[in-house]
Amino acid sequence: MDFVKNRKVYFIISALLIIVGIVFSIVNGFNLGIDFSGGTIITIQAKEFIEEAKIRDIFNKYDETVGIQYSGANKEEIIVKSTKDFDTNQMTEIKYDLEEKFGLDRSAISSDSTEPTMGKEIQRKAVISILITSALMLLYITIRFEFMFGLAAIIALLHDVLITLGFYAVFKFPVNSSLIAAILTIVGYSINATIIIFDRIREDIKLQPKASKAVILNSAVNQTLRRSIFTTITTLVAVFTLYYVGVEAVKVLALPLIVGMISGFWSSVFIAPNLWYTLTGGESNRAKVK
To answer: What residues contact residue 192 under an 8 Å CB cut-off, 6+ apart?
Structure first.
């Protein structure tokens, strides 16, 4: 495949996806989960399936807008999410009502509350974590390869983060701390695939000192393409399985991983190498080995 020839098409596709995500995030905002907006999560380990309407009957006097989700093989695990921070008395009343109406044991009901100030702190630390990670990666790649390789890799990582966040903005999936953990995992996964391709580019520069950068780039990407495809497919099979059979806590981590890994494959194969080619001046400058 001629990856250099079609680089503008790849850039346009990625740019459109990022722009759509940014527009949706500005117009509609993100669906912030309890971790960021503050509120209460109540987990109920029921003995059998309980209809949503019956659950709402109990919670309506405390919060009429609660979100209710089911997980488990028979939907016996119920997760109730409220944007309100229930106090001790309210939680005691809720647990008593659940016990009386559905015959549940007190140990089968658990709750977790987050204050809005804590959510803002999580957001701040998440941004700092991603910035520090990117800076350290740029430093390492610059030392190991050269600055332009590092810059191309970091831009590609930013591409993956924006694509994942855009996906959440468009489809209104809840943004929570699991998404932050997934993004950091995606960054590590994506940079690994990109480094392998960059290392092949560097080796081909040594082996083909008279070849053009376009020939070197196409050769390097085509040599590693099968590895990139197989690695992505095998990883996605595992993550898809986790999403399909996992409980809610696993699904909220698996979903962004699926999006990020697909984006990471795209960026490491089609975006990052072409960014290096463009940033180094295309054919106007000869490729050099550090």
So the answer is: none
The residue assigned the tokens 């020839």 is 5
Give yes or no for a contact between 254 and 242, defined as CB atoms under 8 angstroms apart.
Answer: yes
Instruction: Give the Cα separation of 51 and 60 in Å (integer).
Output: 15
Q: What is the pLDDT of residue 116?
A: 62
Residue 186: Cβ within 10 Å count: 23
pTM for this model (two decimals): 0.79
Side chain identity at residue 234, one-letter code: T
Whole-angstrom distance, CA of residue 162 vs CA of residue 168: 10
Closest by CA to 162, choosing from 54, 24, 32, is 24
Low-confidence ranges of the chain (pLDDT < 70): 72-73, 115-119, 283-290
Length of the chain: 290
CA distances from 266 to 105, 161, 282 (A): 49, 13, 21
* Amino acid at position 18, single letter: I
d(CA 260, CA 158): 11
Residues in CB range of 169: below 8 A, 6 or more apart = 21, 22, 24, 25, 28, 29, 30
* Res 13: pLDDT: 96
Closest CA to 272 of 147, 137, 156, 141: 156
Name the residue type at position 121.
E
Distance CA 224, CA 65 (A): 50
